[in-house]
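INTERNAL AUDIT FORM
Audit reference: QA-55
Scope: verify that the stored structure record matches its stored sequence.
Auditor: D.O.
Record contents follow.
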Amino acid sequence: MFRCRARSLFAGLVILPATLTAQDGHFQSVIERAQQRAADDYAAPVGEVPSALAEMDYSAYQQIRFRRNAALWAEDPHGFSVQFFHPGFLFTEPVTIHVLDDGSSREIPFDPDLFRYDRQAAELESEAVAAEGFAGFRLHYPINDPDVDDEIAVFLGASYFRLVGEGQVYGLSSRGLAIDTVTAGSEEFPAFRSFWLERPADDADAVTVYALLDSPSVTGAYRFRIRPQPSLSVDVDKHLFAREDVDNLGVAPLTSMFDHGQPGMTRRDDFRPRVHDSDGLQVLTRAGEWIWRPLINPARFRVTQLRDSGPAGFGLFQRERDFSSYLDLEAQYHRRPSQWVEPVGDWGEGGVELVEIPSDGETNDNIVAYWAPDTTFRAGEQRHYAYRLLMRGEQPPDHASPRVIRSRTGWAATPGEPDPPPESVRRFAIDFHGEALGDANVDELEAGVEASRGEVTDIRVVSLPEPDTVRVTFRLAPDGDHAADMRVVLANAEGPVSETWNFVWYPDEL
């Protein structure tokens, strides 16, 4: 009975003035909106969330469930469907959501009848009538089972969105833009204010979402082309307009969590050997060098940058895929996705900036990575960026070089040594794995080891009992409390044969 009611809610939507009239003009219209908004003073969102909804706790929010049979496009043959998030809890700034269909734009009004209010949320149903918009939406498509509409994307909160591919569970997040993440003062969080969902053709293999972003400093128009198969990818096209000068602009930001894991600098009283959504930053330079930077949970706020003249690609990866490395049946960290950013065009001079924030638990997102252009984004200026987001497993596409599978460090003292060195003197062990190493003569391999500060000694290259695996070990004596930015690469007479391991050791982390 409710099925007919839910379908009629969408069938009778009011047609708004046709500012988005032709398919090719949809994005241009959003761009013009963003440009016009940037010319005006910033105005905070005007939609209100009733206080009872804003004050609800997580448990109550979880008891408000969208009625699945009310999903947008649920009966269309293309396979895509959309469900909506209720406002409240942390999500107190409603967004407007429109459908683009047959050359017209229709706003989807918030309606409590689209939701179930179970258990402790039941008393909130009467309050929800006064809500003025949704909190966000999620996109569904059957990627694992043809009979199950799996979630593949969620847009919820500020400019955050999360993606998940076949066989994966949600982990790291993407953002539309990062502003002043590492500058003095508080970080600015731009937010998507409006969305336009373009109805796919009956035989479509992708869906297009447009979004309008706003913040005190920047406005933006976004187009997301989401393709679930063969592996989930999103083509992102965005036009940004500056209201105010922005010194620290973060393009294609990724947000993740690293509590503890392999490198050994963070110790936890936890039966699980590893707890993280991502274990490393992967970068492909314009010159073709693959770089792997293991993540840490630092004792202090840490910011590093891998310089480049326009990146070929970067991403946060969950390389370790073995359940025994995590031992967590509920969180399933071994199934968390990796995400690769593939820029389109020349992004100019800058660097991939990695932010690592001290954290006392796995509920905190403490890892951020993004492209940081060198030049200030000046008020009145506009910029265009395009890139593809690829949901991956343990490695990005086209990465065939031997890669790092383990990074470990410990005190460099020898057992029983009568006069051991200070604990700040470290032994590092880096294990590389790849088919090319199976045929290599270890005596013909050399390890190129560099450190920005301190003294590197006792470099060794040895084969391990594991097939196609070679270990590089070395000793680092730091220069006082100065951080050491280190690089390790395997090479033969013809040049590098592996990716480059890159890591910054902070003596004050001990």
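Auditor finding: record pair retrieved intact. The domain at 245-399 is CATH 2.70.98.10 (Beta-galactosidase; Chain A, domain 5).
Action required: none
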